[in-house]
Design brief:
Length: 305
């Protein structure tokens, strides 16, 4: 009886298991790449290049000794403004210092000093001093340098291939290191070029409201082309191959998938690219992040529009 009862229980359990429906298996969630999207924008664009321009004084006057001897006086100091013809130094020759008093004793009517005056040969401020009172100098020695403030300009290092882009322009925009903006009036060019870099110095005159130092480097923008209203996308939205001969974007064709669309690009700025073709509409959604490495048709999930 005991075995019969056990056998009956097993039959009941097997029947129960057979009649119970198997639980359905859960399908794995479809993997989607998180992306953000943007749309086409119509705005002015320009293709430009940024160059350096260094401030300089084109005219400097060198004050030289006009005799060999000792400097008796020196009316000079750095940054002092002097006028053309102003006496800066006096020099007394060795011979005059040796025999000058003897001659005056022998003939009191003969007023011999042997002192020569050295005058400024141009107006400006003194930017360099080489000798002071009491120094022994040779005839022709450099005593000081006078800088002509009216000759202050910026010299733009212009690569020769960019020369056509400034031929018909009268001015260029400039930015100083502290953010101050100036307008540089094109005042001609230097007659020689740097042999190594093949750059030519272009003279830019400025009307600054305050004094600017020499050797100050400013940024100058040279515009190569300008378009008033053109379709463009952020640079991150435009993808390319290793040889940079083909370009494309990833465009959403429904709410969960994006496809590859070849594009032809135009001018570029620091953050945007002109799209010449195809013509996108403002409602087209273009991937701007998460687009790198996606297949031609990819499942995506928009996390921000």
């Amino acid at each position: 009886m005991k075995h019969l009862f056990t056998y009956s229980v097993l039959l009941v359990l097997l029947a129960a298991c057979h009649n119970k429906e198997a639980a359905p298996e859960e399908e794995p969630a479809e993997a989607r790449t998180p992306v953000t999207v943007t749309s086409i924008s119509n705005e002015p664009m320009e293709d430009d290049v940024e160059l350096n321009a260094t401030s300089a004084f084109l005219q400097k006057w060198i004050v030289r000794a006009n005799a060999t001897g000792y400097l008796q006086s020196a009316d000079v100091r750095l940054n002092k403004y002097v006028n053309n013809g102003q006496v800066l130094y006096t020099v007394k020759t060795k011979e005059a210092q040796s025999i000058g008093n003897t001659i005056n004793v022998l003939d009191s009517t003969f007023k011999f000093t042997g002192v020569n005056s050295i005058r400024a040969n141009g107006g400006g401020f003194i930017s360099q001093i080489n000798h002071q009172s009491g120094d022994y100098v040779q005839d022709g020695d450099q005593l000081a340098v006078i800088t002509d403030t009216k000759s202050f300009v910026f010299l733009l290092d212009l690569p020769y291939e960019l020369r056509p882009f400034i031929l018909n322009k009268k001015s260029l925009d400039m930015v100083l290191p502290d953010g101050e903006k100036l307008t540089g009036i094109i005042g001609g060019n230097m007659p020689s070029m740097d042999a190594a870099s093949q750059t030519q110095n272009i003279i830019l005159k400025v009307n600054a409201t305050h004094a600017l130092p020499e050797n100050l480097i400013a940024k100058v923008k040279v515009v190569k082309s300008f378009k008033g209203n053109t379709a463009s996308l952020p640079k991150a939205a435009v993808l390319t191959d290793e040889t940079q001969t083909e370009f494309w974007v990833m465009k959403m064709f429904n709410d969960s998938a994006a496809a590859k669309v070849p594009v032809k690009k135009g001018i570029e700025t620091t953050d945007r690219v002109e799209i010449l073709s195809p013509a996108f509409t403002p409602t087209d959604r273009i991937l701007v992040t998460g687009n790198y490495g996606l297949a031609d048709t990819a499942k995506v999930q928009i996390i921000k529009e």
